[in-house]
Amino acid sequence: MHFGFSDETLVLQETARRFAQEEIAPRAAEYDQSGEFPREVIQKAWELGLSSVMIPEEYGGAELDLVNSCVVTEELAWGCSGMTTSIMCNDLGLMPIIVGGSKDQKKEWLSACAEEFRMVSFCLSEPEAGSDVAGMQLLAEKDGDSYVLNGTKCWITNGGVSDVYTVFATLDRSSRHKGICAFVMNADMPGVSVGKKEDKMGQRASDTRVIHFDNVRVPASQRLGQEGEGFKIAMKTLDTTRPSIGALAVGIARRALDESVAYAKERKAFGFPIAGFQAVQFMLADMAKDIEAARLLTLQSAWMIDQGLRASKHSSFAKCFATDTAMRVATDAVQVFGGNGYTKEYPVEKLMRDAKLMQIYEGTNQIQRLVISRELLKE
Ligand code: CAA
Fold it and tell me: Does residue 160 share a domain with residue 63?
């Protein structure tokens, strides 16, 4: 066992770090305030090979493994987690094709996304079915050689800016997970309409939407996997992408620590820099220790997936621990900054708002604990 990165990984890390410092961080406050979608930044990330990174080489992609993808994600998230969510959700949107698509479907959809800049959304959640995926209501009715989709998805990252959607729908609401199918489609299909953009507390640079499907006719050739396999495709996708959420959280937490250390050295109280007080030192020490543990869990789960091991439990360890850590560390960073930390003039209140979402999306941390405990009891 060794904990070092290869030379290739170090180069990739440096590329992502520079991009975060030069292109993402300087614009983070502006996009946080406006809530607009930073298309040119996201496109630049794609041009540099930092987005849609998991498309296999066979289809023109970089085929990064998950460890490398997590290294990139942590660096980008240091700059802004909202922009990083947009960048990373391309891989989330593409993953059902990688997991469940046929060779022809991969050739058609993955190659197109490797060739030119395209945004992709993973359309799973619904207004009445967030945690309970099997309870989804979006109906897919078979009609000849196609399916007709009716219903609504919500909380769809990149929903208003995507070119391609991977969509989960049920053939029969009463059969729960056994009735679910996965589809891939262009976002401009007749009958698809994008609803209101959510006015979010944090990660405001990512475009989060409701999407309506009104008699959307999808050819059967765009169904991923067999009828009824959609639920497992969704679960396998989430097993693979949850370590990336861990990495994103580590990026937020590391930024919060960096900002806290710099501020503690500079800010004086009682005539001394506050970094000289044990009360502050212990907070910084706890932040650093938890960040290190979160990174290790994240990279371990990513490594397990790269080895082809089933990693539901470890993916949930990483997602849950790292995002709880990010929330705690960002909150403590605001505490280190005191009153200043509570204002928008300093960067840490944004980190705290951004971190909160991490405990909610890609499966709430309560769902992660459910996955972990089910796996434990099964063992
Ligand atoms: N891999 C393969 N198969 C799996 C699996 C996995 N990880 N997890 C479950 N399955 C299989 C089970 O073995 C079972 O198979 P059989 O029918 O053959 O026995 C079947 O799937 C049903 O499993 P469960 O009984 O465990 O299903 P459940 O209805 O109890 O739900 C759940 C399980 C874990 C709660 C699931 O619904 C879940 O993960 N919910 C959270 C959803 C989520 O994470 N949403 C995030 C949306 S994306 C997002 O947020 C993106 C963004 O914007 C950034």
Answer: no
Q: Using H for helix, E for strand and C for coil, what is the string for 160-215?
A: CCCCEEEEEEECCHHHHHHHEEEEEEECCCCCEEEEEECCCCCCCCCCEEEEEEEE
* Residues 217-238: tens digit of each pLDDT: 999 999 999 999 999 999 999 9
Q: Is the CB of 87 under 6 A from ligand 1?
A: no
Structural domain ending residue among the three candidates 197, 230, 263: 230
Give the Cα separation of 184 and 96 in Å (integer). 9
311 lines ligand 1 (CB under 6 A): no
Residues above pLDDT 70, as percent of the chain:
100
Please choose, from the candidates 71, 80, 86, 159, the residue with its C-alpha nearest in 3D space to the C-alpha of residue 121. Answer: 159
CA distances (Å), 7 to each of 4, 74, 288, in order? Answer: 9, 18, 25
| Residue 2 is assigned to a structural domain of this protein | no
My answer on whether 16 and 97 are in the same domain is yes
Whole-number CA gyration radius for the chain: 21
Name the residue of 128, 235, 244, 316 to mutate for ligand 1: max ligand atoms within 8 A of Cβ.
235
Hey, CA dihedral for 130, 239, 162, 104, is it positive or negative? negative
Please give the residue range of the domain that contains residue 16.
7-115
Output the residue whose Cα is nearest ligand 1's atom 8. Answer: 235
The tally of domains found in the chain comes to 3
Which of 202, 230, 258 finishes a domain? 230
